[in-house]
Amino acid sequence: MGRAFVHVILGGGVAAGYAALEFARRGGYSRGELCIISEETVAPYERPALSKGYLLPEGAARLPGFHTCVGANDELLTAKWYKDNGIELVLGTKVIAADVRRKTLLTGTGETISYKNLIIATGARALKLEEFGINGSDASNICYLRNLDDADKLVNVMKSCPGGNAVVIGGGYIGMECAAALVTNRIKVTIVFPENHCKSLRYSAELSHSHYKNLIVAYLFSAVARLFTPKIAEYYENYYSSKGVTFIKGTVLTSFEKEAETGKVFVEVTSVILKDGKHLPADMVVVGIGIRASTSLFEGQLLMEQGGIKINGQMLTSDASVYAVGDVAAFPIKLFDGVIRRLEHVDSARRTARHAVAAILEPSKTKDIDYMPFFYSRVFTLSWQFYGNNTGDVVHFGDFTSSSPRFGAYWVDKGRIRGAFLEGGSREEYEAISNVVRRKAKVTNIAELENQGLMFAIQE
Ligand code: FDA
Ligand code: NAD
């Protein structure tokens, strides 16, 4: 059995939703010519909501409220929208094999789907503790967070232990955002990570331990080196501590203490055991130890780089009919002199998806993408944005002491601004820092830049 489409979007996440909107806007297909194939059972949604609004104790975000493309203040693409726009949603369907030469995909249900143009938007999967030699992460109270099912499990586990203890493994985005959500749900949080500060990169002897070889590889493949400088990390860690969060840094877990409930098949973790033998009591555990791009269907068929599928500025892979977008794609960043980067962030997923559709429908009019990396996070009442690249000398500015802060940093390389970070800015201020990064603004005097701080960007 089989079906044929002109355009197939493989994956039903953020990038898929934005690609669909771009197709609909440009009108480059007829009814029945375009489909999205997704392992997930719902239409594409804004994944960032899962670690923020979805976990709120009151007024939590729920579908259909956060389908794409509301995250970019655009249309809400419900299942009805796809139907109305003649886009077929092939949901709950995993593609298990791809043949790039024959232009076919094989689904888990045994159907062969052929295409003229394929957009790979398979994103990434969460790394499992088992990949670092630690067993037991299938326990009923251990949570990962990548999709809606994970988020539902997390919500249910949180509700099952009001006032209890949570251990969060990992001091990256998931770890920090989930720790904030758990505290908001009145759960006591201990956060454990191997570096000496949150969202940092420390290539140390500790990480060279054989269990963690994969971790180093994951780091090297990850989008950018960790973002926070020690000074910025210190602010957030102090803020989290003031909310009752305990940090255990520079170490890793080695195993879990478990309890099998009589008469039940599942096993529950009761404590997390660290490398020094210390036991941390745990009613629940949240694991956020990085991701791996979902490239496996195409290995040996398409060129790979940075742990992802290598594409050019038109989002085209090494095959003339296959495009790749979002977390799975590694593409040249013009602003960084064409260096190839794989970015694991939502803005990049949205923009690369729309660019691929433009390149498919209007190749002669579509220039190579000129993307400026942009990351953000929101926790408690805090909110930051980062633009560009964190290379060169760091120049901090602003007030690092207030509980309603406004501080940041510039990264300066060869006398030019390469990256900028700002916590607590207004829309105009974020726009100002993004502009100085985009223009690689000239810096003649570092001490003056430090003095001027945010004013440097505003006045430029
Ligand atoms: P995405 O992971 O969204 O989608 C991939 C899709 O492909 C999924 O539907 C998957 O099921 C499907 N798929 C994979 N293999 C398949 C197969 N073989 N067959 C069928 N379907 C298959 N970023 C940011 O900038 N700011 C933020 O605040 C956040 N917050 C955030 C919170 C949480 C909880 C997560 C998990 C992630 C974020 N992110 C983020 C990152 C952001 O969500 C991420 O960069 C985008 O979702 C990437 O979009 P993609 O479409 O590339 O992958
Ligand atoms: P990450 O790469 O941001 O951080 C992984 C963290 O896990 C690191 O701090 C690392 O040291 C730690 N770690 C690894 N192994 C460990 C171990 N054995 N014990 C303790 N700590 C360990 O990855 P993540 O936080 O899992 O995020 C997953 C993905 O979701 C990323 O692509 C990220 O970009 C995305 N995301 C982004 C945002 C955002 O941009 N605001 C928010 C949530 C998720």
From TrEMBL:
<feature type="domain" description="FAD/NAD(P)-binding">
    <location>
        <begin position="7"/>
        <end position="352"/>
    </location>
</feature>
<comment type="similarity">
    <text>Belongs to the FAD-dependent oxidoreductase family.</text>
</comment>
<protein>
    <recommendedName>
        <fullName>monodehydroascorbate reductase (NADH)</fullName>
    </recommendedName>
</protein>
<feature type="domain" description="Monodehydroascorbate reductase 3-like C-terminal">
    <location>
        <begin position="372"/>
        <end position="457"/>
    </location>
</feature>
